[in-house]
Each structure stands twice: as C-alpha cells, then as structure tokens.
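Thread amino acids onto this structure.
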C-alpha cells in the first residue's frame, strides 16, 4: 500500500527518534536525581500519600500498585538505560514488533512517574513528551518505511503546540498585542540563562521585531506544515530557528528541544532511502486504528483552541494521549524572588547571623551569573519562581521544604547549589523574605560585577523552628 509509506522521510524519522531518545534520557535522569527529596517516602510531597487518595483510573501508574524509593529508582534508571539503548539505535536491530515494544517501555515508565508527580510534574512539556513518545512507538524502524499517517500526527502535535501558544498570547496579556512583552520578559522569565541579560538589553525596536516574528511563526506558519514540499520543510525550518533562539534566551527545560524534534517530522532531508519490504498488514491496521483514536480525541483540544476561555497545558485523558499547550499568556513586568535564610541563633532577631541558601538555577546572589541547564529540568527552582508570584502557588510544598532545611535533609540539600550550614549543624530557625530583582545596567555591571540588583520588599515567611511543624503552619 504505497499510500501508507513515506520513504523520503527515512532520515527525518531517524533524526527524530534519536533526538527523542536523548530527551527521554534527560527526563529520566532528572527524575532519578531529584525524586527522593521531592516525591520519595520522606519527600516534600510523598507518592504514598498521593496514591492513597487518588484512584488508579485517574492517575494510572506502576506506583499505584506498590511504591518504594528503591522501586522508583529502578524505574528511573531503567528508563535511562532503555533511552540510551534507543539513542544508540537498538530498536533498528530488532524485529518491527520488538522495536515497537522497546519504544513503549520509556513511555509507560515516564507515564507512571508523571501521573504521581503532582505539582512537580505539572508542566506542559511533560504531557508533550508523553504524547510525542506514544506516537514514536508507531513510527517503525529500519524494517519499514515511515508511515505517512504518523508523520501527519506528529505535525498535528506541532501545530497545536505553536498555534495554541500563539492564541493564548493574543488573547492574553495586552503587551503581546502591543509588541512590548519582551521589554521585560527576558528579565522576569522563570529561569534566565547565561545570555538572558544580554537579550534584555537589546534595543527596544529589536524586541518589537522579536514579538512580531513570534506571532507570525506561531499563528501563520503552523498552517504551512500541511502544505506540499518544499513549503512544509521551510515552515518547519523557520520553527526550528525560532526555537533555537528561545534556547539561547533562557532555560525552558526541554520544551524548545522537543518542539524542534517535532519539527523534524515535516523536514524532507536529502537522502537515499534504503529499500525495505512493504509494511506487514498487522502493522498498518494497528497504525490506522491508533490514528483514528487520536484524531477522535483531538476534538477536545480543538474546542479548547477555538474557545474564548482557552486554557493552556491541560491533559484531557489520564494517558496524556492528546493535550493542549501554550505558554506565557501573561507576562510579569516585575521580578520577585523568595530568598530563604537560616540562622544558628536560639532566639532569632533581625540582626542575627542570617545565612542565605543558594539555588542552582533561580536568581539568588546578585553576583552569581545564571547558567544553562536546559534541557535538564530543575523542578524546585521552577516552583520557587511560582512561589514568588503568590504564596498560593506554594501552599502544598513550601512548608515541607522548610522542614527539610531545618533537618539538614541530605537529599533536599543536593537540590541546592550551596547550603550555608555544615551537615552536622542544622539551622535553629529558617525564614523567607521577598525581594525585587532587576537586571543591572551596563555601567552597574562594569562597576560591581553583579548582573542583578535586588531590593527587599517584605517578609514572605517569619522565622520558624523545626518543633513548630513548618509544613502544617505554612
């Protein structure tokens, strides 16, 4: 059935699969290194407590059947191993059905993690990785040509990612319509990167051009993905360039990278496709059945996109098969940061020796220049950005974080860049203060070496002791 195959996209499929395997590897590595402090048996939001109140049908996961930190660790490192095998091309050395099963393993394992990850995994790129990873199961391997219908569905995901993000901006903050959002977005974004300071100081006319180009790429270009070649390839290439520009401007986990991966599905890369036999009938039946299911489920994100009350980053089913996406419908004009401090004094006073905890990615010390972490995801740092926007965003977890800092919990301290207290001497009290941060000017940078200037705003959390049960008090 020649209409089923797209041999010209053989190299595109290869690049897409290897890049997706690399992102899976990063996602599982992130989970393996951070879960104990965030979700473990003694974590801030323990998985056992979550599965005790949420039924399997609402959050299907291996951990609904049984949980232990050792089992989670085994799943995360197994995901790393399988992802590395896929990155090395193990699926191409297997029969078609076995290659499909191999791709199914990381999807099932990561679904199990996301569905019990609670607020730590409530990011749009989690669902995006799962939705893309599920389709990758049906892309086939070197034994068959790439199926046209799966390539179409990958473009359909890319369309929803870009067009949904464009709509949420136009309908949201007025600064997107006035082309002024980037006058402050590079400064107020969740986790600036090493070049964000320079992006912020670009001339304002260039910021207007950035916003206008973003609107064009997200609202007009996505429709070109479904046109004949070479127009579809040109549209995908423009999206890739835009995403790489965003990679340079900040740390957005793997959101930009997986969008690039999806765009590869529309590229017809020059290559000589190997001669392969026709796809087996069972494979065609399975692919078409899955495509029909996904197209049926797509009516929900479509209705959401055309709704005036559009929501972003929502999954419509517990398997995350078809989702809606979007980012930065509103943009903060002022940056606030929560600074956590501890002291060894028995009776905390304003003039006590308060020592600041330093996070890996979020701004803290004004002289500490931001680093590039993406596609690696610093989950606690991202949630700290939300906490600064409003204490309501931190209600579930902030008190638990403070408790573990008062205990000098080893796993929690590993999430930080620096703790001001030695392991054997935990603080007697911990407090949190809210500061306003702004980028320094060129002159201030040369004079002080600091990329940030910060101003005290108010108390975020008054001093608390461990015996005062900070989690319940907060």
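Threaded sequence (474 positions):
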């Amino acid at each position: 059935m020649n209409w089923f195959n797209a041999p010209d996209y053989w190299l595109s499929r290869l690049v897409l699969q290897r890049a997706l395997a690399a992102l899976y590897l990063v996602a599982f590595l992130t989970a393996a290194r951070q879960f104990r402090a965030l979700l473990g048996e003694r974590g801030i939001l323990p998985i056992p407590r979550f599965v005790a109140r949420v039924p399997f049908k609402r959050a299907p996961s291996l951990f609904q059947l049984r949980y232990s930190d050792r089992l989670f660790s085994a799943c995360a490192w197994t995901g790393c191993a399988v992802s590395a095998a896929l990155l090395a091309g193990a699926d191409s050395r297997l029969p078609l059905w076995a290659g499909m099963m191999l791709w199914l393993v990381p999807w099932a394992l990561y679904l199990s993690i996301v569905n019990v990850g609670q607020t730590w995994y409530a990011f749009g790129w989690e669902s995006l990785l799962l939705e893309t990873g599920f389709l990758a199961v049906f892309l086939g391997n070197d034994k068959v040509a790439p199926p046209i219908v799966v390539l179409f569905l990958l473009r359909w995901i890319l369309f929803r990612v870009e067009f949904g993000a464009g709509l949420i901006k136009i309908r949201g903050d007025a600064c997107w319509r006035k082309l002024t959002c980037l006058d402050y977005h590079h400064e107020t974004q969740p986790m600036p990167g090493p070049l964000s300071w320079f992006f912020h100081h670009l001339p304002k006319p260039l910021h207007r051009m950035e916003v206008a180009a973003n609107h064009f790429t997200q609202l007009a270009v996505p429709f070109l993905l479904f046109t004949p070649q070479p127009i579809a390839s040109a549209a995908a290439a423009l999206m890739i360039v835009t995403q790489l520009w965003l990679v340079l401007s900040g740390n957005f986990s793997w959101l930009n990278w997986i969008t690039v991966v999806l765009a590869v599905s529309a590229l017809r890369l020059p290559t000589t496709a190997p001669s392969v036999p026709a796809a087996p009938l069972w494979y065609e039946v399975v692919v078409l059945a899955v495509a029909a299911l996904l197209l049926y489920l797509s009516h929900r994100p479509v209705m959401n996109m055309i709704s005036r009350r559009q929501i972003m980053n929502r999954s419509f089913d517990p398997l995350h098969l078809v989702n809606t996406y979007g980012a930065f419908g509103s943009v903060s004009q002022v940056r606030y940061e929560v600074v956590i401090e501890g002291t060894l004094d028995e009776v905390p006073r304003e003039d006590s020796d308060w020592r600041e905890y330093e996070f890996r990615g979020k701004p803290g010390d004004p002289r500490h220049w931001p680093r590039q972490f993406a596609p690696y995801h610093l989950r606690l740092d991202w949630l700290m950005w939300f906490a600064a926007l409003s204490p309501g965003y931190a209600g579930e977890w902030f008190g638990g974080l403070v408790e573990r800092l008062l205990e000098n919990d080893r796993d929690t301290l590993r999430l930080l860049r620096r703790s001001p207290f030695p392991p054997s001497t935990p603080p007697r009290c911990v407090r949190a203060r809210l500061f306003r941060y702004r980028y320094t000017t060129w002159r201030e940078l040369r004079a002080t070496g600091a990329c940030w200037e910060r101003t005290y705003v108010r108390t975020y959390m008054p001093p608390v002791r461990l015996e005062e049960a900070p989690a319940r008090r907060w």
